[in-house]
């Protein structure tokens, strides 16, 4: 700290200056309070796959919540609550190759290609967390209702196309939201995971609870076999908060973060459950 930035104030002179420095030092020593709830994840050990199926049931949500259901090395797929209960979407995103954050800096031949998007789906570019293509489908999903997601991968060296499907109970069918193709070297689905995220990050949101269950996850392997995702590793980001937790409920994994959540399961723990049944895929 530099003394020369202080000024002589009236008859108190350097005494006032030193008091200011002491106060500044005291505040500087206080730990910074996180402005967001801690992101928590479930990593699923799985063989390379052509299909990834998973389900989510949201139990508690607040504005600025992302319940990501089908995550993999090249993208992610889930549901968000944006500004409130009436403002909710399904989000599917695929990354461009590289580690850039400016979407406009990516040459056309290296950008994610849009092969399909439903008439009800809005497609655009994104940046700041890598770059790529994303699709939004408006859906007023409900607390306590289970939603089913499926991603299909088709390797077309040096690229892979990823198709996102959402099951619609009201019409009893799979809705093909979008298909994106990106440079992968021809990789299949790998590095599978789910997570909870607070993307509002306004300080208040760190004190609010988000909770959901994920489960009945399956993959179709490269040789056509179906394998249940019976294990998950619990991890979190670097946010210095311990009001996070996980566990197994009704043979499904659950995640919770923020608010009055109490931690019982250490990070990096491996959980396991027994398969329920193989669901029909699109």
Q: What fraction, in percent, of the residue positions are helical?
A: under 10%
- Parts with pLDDT < 50 across at least 5 consecutive residues: 1-12, 14-27
Q: What class do helices, strands and sheet pairing give?
A: mainly beta
Strand tally is 18
Give me the strand/helix succession.
Answer: HEEEEEEEEEEEEEEEEEE
Largest β sheet strand count, sense and barrel closure: 9 strands, antiparallel
Q: What's the CATH topology name of the largest domain?
A: Jelly Rolls
Mean pLDDT, as a whole number?
90
Portion of residues in beta strands equals: over 45%
CATH architecture verdict of the largest domain:
Sandwich
Whole-number count of domains: 2
Strand order of the largest sheet: 7-8-5-4-3-12-1-15-18
Distance between the termini: 63 Å
Explain this structure to me?
The protein is mainly beta. The protein has two domains: 1-30; 40-272, Jelly Rolls, CATH 2.60.120. It contains one helix and 18 strands. Mean pLDDT is 90; it is low at 1-12 and 14-27.
What descriptors fit this protein?
282 residues, mainly beta, Jelly Rolls, 9-stranded antiparallel sheet, 6% helix, globular
